[in-house]
Every structure is written in structure tokens, then in C-alpha cells.
Amino acid sequence: MLHYHTIPVTPFAQNCSLVWCAQSLQAAVIDPGGDLEHILGEVRARQLKLQAIWLTHAHIDHAGGAGELSERLTLPIIGPHEGDQFWIDGLPQQSAMFGFPQAKIFTPTRWLHDLDTVTIGRETLNVRHCPGHTPGHVVFHAPQIQRCFVGDVLFAGSIGRTDFPQGNHAQLIASITERLWPMGDETVFIPGHGPESSFGRERRSNPYVGGT
Ligand SMILES: [Zn+2]
Ligand SMILES: [Zn+2]
Q: How many distinct structural domains can be found in the chain?
């Protein structure tokens, strides 16, 4: 059984999620953007064995703590897709621009590609490449619990910004309609910011992608 717990971190209230295999208590942390002591406190409270860092994309609020956490606990960094290399290279400038603690640059242990899988304990999640918000953005789909961790691709009632360098609105819409919607209307998604929703609810009522 796959479990998860979402922890808002950084001044941007970014939804960092711990995901773990209930049998083994092996865990991965998705998007540790900052507030590492808070995240590690939740890991200890649940007696989880943290094995890996998974990244949806390399914006500071999602990836800002990854380098330090990887160094401290000797954890592999898995993801995002290599299209986000320039955002990783720019983490120091992103830190300065948004008033974050200076982020460490890192080299992912493994880049992710569309239709890859990632495993934690006995649980496997499917990776989809969903460019548009950033060129290297990926999402983590857990069909066994009908959940998807979508980063800044889609929000309850909104979609990701595309006004950054290499952002692409048409590509983002295609990522949502061609790669997220087929996961099913009942699938609940955990966005990078704000409350959870389901793909079905967004298909009905989201002003940006409703009716698609
Ligand atoms: Zn972002
Ligand atoms: Zn974000």
C-alpha cells in the first residue's frame, strides 16, 4: 500500500509530499523546496526510511532544498527531465531573486523521461513528461491509489504559469489534456500549491481547461 503526506514548505507554500510503501516504510520525498527540518521531522515522526528525492521540476520552491538534503543524507536525486537543466543551473540566481536561502546546485542521479517508472519499497509510480510550465516538468502517477503528483502543471481551478523562459502555453494545455486526463476523472491530484482536486472536477469546472 502506498501512503503519502503533504507538507507545505517555503514562503510559496509549496506542497512537498512524502510518499512511502506501508510494508517497508521506505519513503521518497517529492519536491523538497526548503524547510528541511520540518520535512525531516515528519520523516522521523512516521519512522520512515528516506531513500530518494524525486523532483517534478527545478523551480526554487520545488528544488531549492534538494542539493542540501541529498548531501546530508546521501540520497539520490531522481528527476526532473533534462529540459530543466538551465533551471538547475540558475538555482543560485533564483534563490537571490526570491529571497530564499542560497540553494546548492546539483546533478540529478537520474533524469526522467516520459513513461519511465520510479519505485519505492514495493510500490511503483509512472512518470509522464508534462512540459509547458517548464520544459523538463514531470508528474508522478500512482494508479494503485488513484493519485497523481503534478507539481505546477495543474491546480484546483487554475493551471501553471507559462510566462517564464521556455514556458509554452499550448504545450501545457496538451500536457494536461493528453497526459493527465487519460489517468481518469476519479484520479485525485496533488498540485504544487493549494488544495487537492480530481481531474474530473477540473474537466468540468476549470476555466483554463474545462470542457477539454
Ligand atoms: Zn514552478
Ligand atoms: Zn511552484
A: 1
